[in-house]
């Protein structure tokens, strides 16, 4: 669904743009994704809209009597698929996001940012009714968060040029077939322009 509107209180959710994932072989240049996410963050903050920065630390627990057949997601990325501590700084949010004192910061241990975190309650406390989601990976953390936001009753928008995945086919499938069922999609610049128009009276 094409981009049409933003609610008066819309939050930006940035998924897993953290130090440990910057070397992952994504399908699109990660520097471009980071720059667009940062531009969205700056636009949202400029108008006093909430920004939620999400990182991932480990994987959700599974069966305890046996190790996962193929290891866990994070462990596979760092070359230690069956557990163990993450490298120092692995979960650190990248500095390009320009974290501010008023930002919401959430650490998740599942793919989606709403499961087993206080993100939903923090957004609702701020009167948020719509979310814009960016980050990595498109078919992982981004899609899972979008699904959870939709199920929780938030209006959902996805900045499709501010996300990527290591699997080009999965990235394309999410954008072409999944996201249109969950909400609206648009480019980073289109969303920034809409933020500016929606909140123009604040700068008058």
Automatic annotation (TrEMBL):
InterPro entries (UniProt xref): Isochorismatase-like_dom, Isochorismatase-like_hydrls, Isochorismatase-like_sf
Record domain Isochorismatase-like: where: 10-189
A Pfam family the protein falls into: Isochorismatase
Transmembrane segments: none
Gene Ontology terms, MF aspect: hydrolase activity
Entry keyword set: Hydrolase
Official protein name in the record: Nicotinamidase-related amidase
Taxonomic path: Bacteria, Pseudomonadati, Pseudomonadota, Alphaproteobacteria, Hyphomicrobiales
